[in-house]
Amino acid sequence: MASLDQQTAPRAHNDVTKDNLVESQSKIISCIAQATFVSIDTEFTGLGRGPSQNTRASNIEERYVALREVVLNHAMVAFGLSAFKESTPESPESASLETSYTADHFNFTLLCQVCSSLCNLPSFSAFLTGFLGQNAYTVNPKSLSFLAESGFDFNKQAISGIPYFPGDIQESNRSDKFNVAMRQIFRRLLTAKVPVVVHNGLLDIMFLYHGFYACLPRRLDTFLADLSDMFPQGIYDTKYIADYLTREKASFLLYLFKKYEREQLKRKTNSRKTYVTVAHNNVIVDSPVKAPHPLNKSAAKHCQQFANHGHCPKGVRCPLSHDLDVILDAEMNKRKRRRKEEHSDEAKPDTESEESGVQAPSSNDACDPPATTQSQSQSHSAHFDAYMTGFVFARQALTYSLATLQESHVNRIYLIGKSFPLIISKSAFAGYSESHEAQRPQLI
Predict the structure, then answer these.
(1) Going by fewer Cβ within 10 Å, which terminus of the chain is more open, N or C?
(2) What are φ and ψ of residue 415, in 5° steps?
């Protein structure tokens, strides 16, 4: 197990490409099989914004149809997976308070090989189109810019990306070793029967289903029936939990991660509070991703738009700070001022509650996460988003207990613009898709 120095290991993960996928496959499958839970994230080439892509339709069936079109006509470029395994705390003295995990992180660089929209065609037309070499997919300019600004290496993708063929597996690619390996890894995620964790993860789930399992069903109820059977331990959405259970002020991933990271460091030093720690196993390859723009730490004020939603239309041109440490410090100071006004004779800075988002210590060894200096934490990558999602879930499970989450908050996926989640369950009037029915015997 490696002790990671934040100056030399800005990203602790296994970088998986076509050059090492086959030899890494057994390690990946073993990590999934032993995991307590697995968190995932994907990066893809577009969101399908526009009048013809009604991805935020008020009718959920219509929204699914629009999102399905997005998935069929775009491609995954990266898949992040973090396998968290509950472990015994190193110190016997802390065993009653500490919930300890070891974690392995994998970043798969992907290169789609065929246009998924063939799933919309009759079988003969699909065969003919595939035979003639139809292999294009849509890349949205804004998504391309976002990936580039986040440090995504397109040269690496072109040279070493893992080739994969989305949709139902065809005889023409059944023997492709890379395609087979990715599908076997995904299938192990299903047969391991472990909870799977996402953050605002509907599109992530749809891309993974279509990329490594089968063509997306045309109907939402069929898709939900398949998912309920594929993931027997359920899917958890940390954004749904943050919005509906913990009622956080903001629920975008980086905010939750930075807040909970501070909180857990504080709780560990308290010596009377329960807390979460995460240790990270050795890596195969480490590929640091750096943020392309320096952060404005000296800004007197932070951007409230970014603080609330995690994005700002002005982007790097915004004169206000997008630094999460600045934002969390401002929230802490606001709470301190309010407490001083209400309890001026009792309020002291060193008695701040662990929920206050106190200033984090200079070292982050207490939680031992992949080092996240402020210049790095703004970079965006599938493996680190998967890790942050898992860390947030570990904190949520500590606070509310996994049993509570299993009872009332499993299989509820966050829906943008809705006051209710998407519930993953099999309707009495819906059947499984033909593709899933064919693969069910292999999942037992």
Answers:
(1) C
(2) -115, 120
Q: Report the predicted TM-score, pTM, of the whole model to 2 decimal places.
A: 0.80
Provide the β-strand partners of residue 423: 412
Residues in the chain: 444
Tokens, residue 141:
């300019």
Helices marked H in 132-273 — which ranges?
141-149, 154-160, 177-191, 202-212, 220-230, 238-244, 253-270
DSSP-assigned letter for residue 213: T
Determine the Cα–Cα distance for residues 62 and 415; give it in Å rounded to an integer. Answer: 13
Domains of the chain: 14-443 (3.30.420.10)
CA distances from residue 125 to 120, 166, 224, 258 in whole angstroms, order as listed: 10, 17, 28, 50
pLDDT tens track for 237-263: 999 999 999 999 999 999 999 999 999
The Cα–Cα gap between 124 and 26 comes to: 37
Res 302 pLDDT > 70: yes
DSSP state of 76: E
